[in-house]
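S.,

Sequence below, as promised.
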Amino acid sequence: MSTDKNSPWIPLNFLALPEEKSNLKNSRVVLLPVPYDSTTSYRTGARDGPMAILRASYNLEDYDHELDFDVSQVGIHTTPFLEPHMGGPRQMVERIEETVHTLATPDKIVGLLGGEHTISVGAVKAMATRYPDLSVLYLDAHGDLRDQYMDTPWSHATVARRLQEICPLVQIGVRSISQEERDFIRQKGTPTFFWDSDDPELPVLDRLLPLLTQEVYISIDLDVLDPSIMAAVGTTEPGGMSWSQITWLIRKVAERRRIVGFDVTELSPGEGPTACSYTAAKLVYKLIVYSTLWQRKDSAESVLRSSALPQG
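The prediction came back faster than expected:
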């Protein structure tokens, strides 16, 4: 096999970008694939999600017509896959925390490709040390507010509970909770928006935004989407967001807050059609576009200031 640099290799990274658009130094976005699903309690396979997302991303256009922007221009670095820690979920959370803390520098946005939703805990723990004013926007069909599940506090069913112990958390998209979680929401006042909207311009936006701090981490379990477009998850739940609703919501948050990190979790590619992997990859793509809005805006304003004619 030829090793000539001009051979048509396909890089194993998001969008299959060449070195000049994917090296760590010049990238504004860093994607961390985490193939982990140790605490899955129903349908397994989320460990295959990161690879499925990367492969599907090869077929995305670099150009985003919505914002008239080539997303590859921000620079997107994809790290090697983070090896699961077989000592248990708590050790895995600690491994993720250490890794994300290293990657999350002020000039970079870190996105995790899951893997089960438990990976969010390590990421948010790391982000909270970098951004003391952090809050989490948590999109999920389930409450995930149990204190323990299957005899462990480190589970896909306890993620939101652990996150709200770290920083303010707002849930949206919930369609299924236990009585224990209902009682917790009432006792603690955890902001929770149950999903009962068919309007793509979500009426909850005016109530949602004041609950978020200026720096926001977005955590997405793909089962927040309607099963008609996202069947490839561990625990499907009838109803859910449409593509237009979730992208509209994320964009509106990005226009008013600074997104400093995100994750997309719970894709189990074997549980649904290949279109689900493509949809997940497209959602990651949109998160990259929206989360870098403030950086592009700051850069544009800086250029305008430097090129302005002197006054007086």
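The longest strand covers residues 258-265.

Coffee later?
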